[in-house]
Amino acid sequence: MPLRSDWSGEFCPIRRSLDVLGDPWVLLIIRDVLHGRGRFDVLRDNLGISEPVLSRRLQTMVEAGLLVRVDYADGPRTRQGYAATDAAAELLPVLQQLAVWGERHTVMPAGGAHMALIHETCGDETTSGETCSSCGAALSAGQMTWVKPWKHARDRLQPAGTLL
Q: Which residue in 63, 29, 71 sits closest to 163, CA to CA?
């Protein structure tokens, strides 16, 4: 999904990555899907994104191999939501490092509080996106909880392919 130009044929892997991930909505959608919020209405409401923009982003992300459509029951109806693929789940260290970077280098708005990244396997907070800064283990979505005090939330991330 080109943000400015089509960089899909570039030799530079950063340019090719930005061709897919360069739209800020993409990482925010992946964040929410990894939190188990892969239903269209939940994504729309949580992100504050318009339906047409969300529809286009989701379609492009499915085509790019970041998301898969997953059926779920909604009363007597079957609907489709979205789950992360392994490719999207591999972005977890990037998302977590962005959170760590934002904690260190941006100004916290009034009333905000520190977001903690908890490695559930050892129970400690990590200050690294890829490996636990406490126990050294590689971090994966199914082992991570993000504590967001401003939302009074403690959200356990979901492994690839999971829709709640």
A: 71
Q: pTM of the prediction?
A: 0.88
Q: pLDDT of 88-109, one tens digit each? A: 999 999 999 999 999 999 998 9
Which residue numbers in the chain have pLDDT < 70? 1-4, 163-164
Neighbours of 31 (CB within 10 A): 23
What is the residue whose two structure tokens read 């009363």?
Answer: 75
d(CA 65, CA 84): 9
Q: Regarding beta strands 144-148 and 124-126, do their DSSP bridges make them parallel or antiparallel, or are they unpaired?
A: unpaired
CATH 1.10.10.10 domain locations along the chain = 13-87
Assess if CATH 1.10.10.10 describes domain 13-87. yes
